[in-house]
Amino acid sequence: MDLFLQFLTNGLINGAFYALSALGLTLIFGLMRVVNFAHGEMYMLGGVLGWFFTTHLGLNFFLSVALVAAVMAAFGLLIDRFLIERLRGEGEEPGILFTIGLSIFLANVTLLVVGPAPLKVAGAVPEGALFIGPIIVTKLRLMAVAVGIALMIATHALIRHTRLGQAMRATFQDPMAASLSGIRVARVHAATFALGCTLAALSGMLLASIYSAQASVGGLVSLKSFVVVILGGMGSFPGAVVGGLLLGVAESLWGGYVATGMVDVIGFVLVILILLFRPQGLFSSSSERA
Amino acid sequence: MPSDSRILLTLLAAAALFPLAVHDPYVLHIAILVLFYVVLASSLNLIVGYVGEFSLGHTAFLGVGAYAAALLAQKAGWPVWATIPAAGALAAVAGGFIGAITLRLKGPYFVIVTLSFAEVLRLVANNWIAVTNGPMGLAGIPQGFLQDKRLFFYAVLAVAAVTLYLCYRFVHSNAGRGAVAVRESRFVAQSIGINPFGSAMLAFVLGAGLAGLAGGFYAHYITFVGPDIFQFSFMASMIIMVLIGGKGTLIGPIIGAAIVTLLEEYLRDMQELRLTLFGLIVMAVVLFLPNGIISLAPKLKRLRPHAPARPVSADRGVL
Amino acid sequence: MKAASYGLLLALAASPAVVASPAVAEDEIRIGLIQPLTGSVAYNGKSVVDGAKLALADINAAGGVLGKPVRLVIEDGQCKPANSVNAVEKLVQRDKVVALIGAFCSSATAAIMPVAQKYQVPLLTGVSSKADLTEQNNAYFYRAAETDALLATAFSSILANSLKLKTVAYIAVNDDWGRGAVAEFDRDLTALGVKTVATEYFDHGATDFYTLLTKIRATRPDGIVVAAETQDGSILVKQIKELGLSAKVFGVGSWATADFIDLAGEAAEGLYAAVPYVSTLETPRNTAFVKAYEAQYGAKPGKYGAAGYNAVNIMAAAIARAGSTEAPAILAGLKQTDYAAPNGTYKFTDKGQAYGFETALVKIEGKSPKVIATAPVDAPH
User: Fold this and answer.
1) To probe the interface with B, which of A36, A79, A97, A187 has the most B CB atoms within 10 Å?
2) Residue B35 — pLDDT band, cuts 50, 70, 90?
3) What is the percent of chain B with per-residue pLDDT over 70, rounded to a whole number?
4) Rg of the Cα trace of chain C?
5) CB contact under 8 A, A14 and C40
6) How far apart are CA B139 and CA C112, in angstroms?
7) CA-CA 20 to 30 A from A253: which of A242, C52, C185, C285?
């Protein structure tokens, strides 16, 4: 029983991390219909920038979070305004091919600039174990979960309750009507992409403070995030959370009771099963977006 | 379209003469790679270009073919001329199975589910040690009578010729025209009695089988097959070839395969900058040549069965 | 239409010819080096290249080989069989290298071995550790590295007798190297009466080991043998500490480096690691090597830096001994290798397996690897 509780806790914490790292992907897909294959590289850049600000420059963790958010928002804004803007209305394929090219480019530029070594990001709180009954967690992990939840709530509020969020939802429901009613559609697109990149980067930095940051991690993160997003239903925020938790717990229990060697297969098998029996995901994305 | 077949025949004839003029083994090696990728890109093009769905799981069939050929040659002692066709057949069976499941899905769901199948197969290859030797891979695959680069060249040329012939036949068959009609407008096609699932399925199985042939060839040529064959990097190369060359045309993937393979080799001189530049070039082509390099040849343009105007999804509207 | 198709033909025919432009300078000796420089093992591949470049600088400063300067032509094989084969084709045919060093991962090395044999170019690996590579009767292949089997033989008795382990659990990366290491240690430790209580594999790039470690903790092993590289390994040992496992942790991989110790932080203290090379070995040759390496790269060399350094030195010496760049002469030169490395002496068996060099068991104390014992790698029987 103790073993089961520990597996469940591991799964839930890991699942929260999965959900967090998939938020940016589901936002960009849900609102913009762009399948962002460079998502993992945005996550990676967040970790690498986090290393640069905390370890290399020695700045405070939370100041670094703000700096990473600012840099990546600007980066996302520029990429969308000057590059992705040109692909709008061309369907999904140019977007996919473009982001594949972007991911190759970003991963290798990073490799050139900071090298291939794993990089350490200083955490916000000291490392150390916490015992809750028979279960072990660490402060750092609990903090990451807390920050993750805060990020999710803030993003949700941004989309639901601000003028920008309103403009976003209007634009993606009916761009023509939105532009007729005075919304600057191109700006809304750029803001959405920037927000997606920022979320990916912040999750990357947060998790790099627990693990480590490295130029080559992007591909794996993209794959896991796709799984999470499909499980929950593309474009749905609550879906991403449920998808992440489901994946985390399923992997943990499979690893705990069957074999750890093939843990990664669980996510893909779940994706195939869910798409077979419930193609819209666990949370339908047609009625609710973000 | 006779001109289409004329270009293909001219290209194949020129390729057949190629080893007579060139003796440098390195150039032959590059030429073999180009033809190998012509097979892969053309087979993927059947799905991406003619069904109009974006498959990212094509490495599943490449890998199934490669493992099939390797195991048949190593464990059952089959000769090369039997293993490669068998690899194609097995991959086609896998294509039938996977296609029956995935072709019901559209758009991004199809993209991710095909990718998932390839990943599942990679993980199975990595862990089913009794059969695949797991991460250690299968080494020392016999090459049979293919003892010389030139023989390998003609072997892959034969596979490429079969591929192009079958693609040509498919495109000009009723099923192929049906597939194009479905791609352009599903509802119109259905209203005139085309079964969208049937023609898509045929393209998918054919594409899978041809990728399997390529995989079988790969196993004997490289003499090593490991789980990394299922990885995304092969997939990225293939998809870049099809889209850079021009999807939905027979010639496009050939141009794409030649250009991308040569580019990757040329860029070796750039050392560390190689992949960075490669990524930049891919982005530039998407931005500046959205219909592929083939759209540069104005005369070839009319061969294109229309620019692939995917119906703009209803919720996007027109920007 | 015709013009277009002929244009296409011309382009196709002409481009490989341009690629192949042979520019062979006879006034230098070229050695091809294939390492993963992009992708997930790029970090280790880069270290090999760094070490190799250092050796090259020494050799050329001393006047080169056969009176000519030596040049390393470095190619990225990405640790993938197909890419590594491409790299060999290019190195042999276009750059006309006289010898090859590579290709890191055993799978990639297995793929290029027949190619090297076909083109009759000597191939030396300083890293690939899968035992059966030297059992394939490939006369062109030499290995200047320990195999998993040799490492296991060298350290099993220390683990069983000196550290007095009764039960042991294995954690390894799920690839050819990880599985090979577990198989060899398992065999030797079982023969010495140590009981295996758990074996778990994880995929490269995994970040969360809590589930795996929760399972291991329930089996209460005395010792945990881990086969993992820097990135996975440093995260793993941190989580071992967090979960409060008290077992002695014994690692195989590039653990005795400053990077590893820095990444693992506090959790690195008290770890044991079996390494074919450690920078704190106190031999005059090693002190000089570490000093030169540190001056050049600002960090102490690890296992892979030393591997690159040794491989280039061994190959250059073989060419010098051969007196020519003909393959049979170089092979004969390799066979006579008696190379004094920072970590002992390298000699080759008839099958091309190196022996005679020292491997070290280190314990990490005060952020530095302390050598506890060294064991020479004997010729395999």
Assistant:
1) A97
2) very high
3) 92
4) 22
5) no
6) 10
7) C185
Average pLDDT over residues A141-155: 87
| Residue range C179-230, pLDDT digits in tens | 888 999 999 999 999 999 999 999 888 888 888 898 898 899 999 999 998 8
| Dihedral sign from CA coordinates of C177, B91, C115, B271 | negative
Q: Do A97 and B286 touch (CB under 8 A)?
A: yes
Residue B276: which domain range?
3-300
A217 touches chain C (CB under 8 A): yes
Structure token pair of residue B24: 């440098």
| A134 touching chain C per CB within 8 A | no
Averaged pLDDT, C118-143: 90
In contact, C128 and C145? CB cutoff 8 Å:
yes
Question: Contacts of residue B50 in chain A, CB cutoff 8 Å?
Answer: none
Q: How many structural domains are present in chain B?
A: 1
Q: C123-125 and C141-143 as β-strands: parallel, antiparallel, unpaired?
A: parallel
pLDDT at res. B298: 61
| CATH code of the domain covering residue B89 | 1.10.3470
Other C-beta atoms within 10 Å of C197: how many? 17
pTM for this prediction: 0.87
Q: Do C20 and B126 lie within an 8 Å CB cutoff? A: no
Residues spanned by the domain of A92: 12-217
Condensed to tens digits (0 to 9), the pLDDT of residues C179-192 reads 888 999 999 999 99
- List of chains touching B (3+ CB pairs within 8 A): A, C
Q: Can you list the domains of chain C with their CATH numbers?
A: 10-146+283-348 (3.40.50.2300), 149-275+361-376 (3.40.50.2300)
User: C234 vs A108: CB contact, 8 Å cut-off?
Assistant: no
Closest CA to C37 of C22, C50, C54: C50
Best C38, C211, C263 member to test A by mutation, with max A CBs in 10 Å, is C211
Number of structural domains, chain A?
A: 1
What contacts 24+ positions apart, CB below 8 Å, involve A180-187? Answer: A185/B319, A186/A81, A186/A85
Minimal Cα distance from A105: which residue of C?
Answer: C38
ipTM of the modeled complex? 0.85
Q: Indicate which of C38, C89, C184, C203 best probes the interface with B, i.e. most B CBs within 10 Å of its own CB.
A: C89
Using alpha carbons, select from A55, B271, A201 the residue that is nearest to residue C259: A55
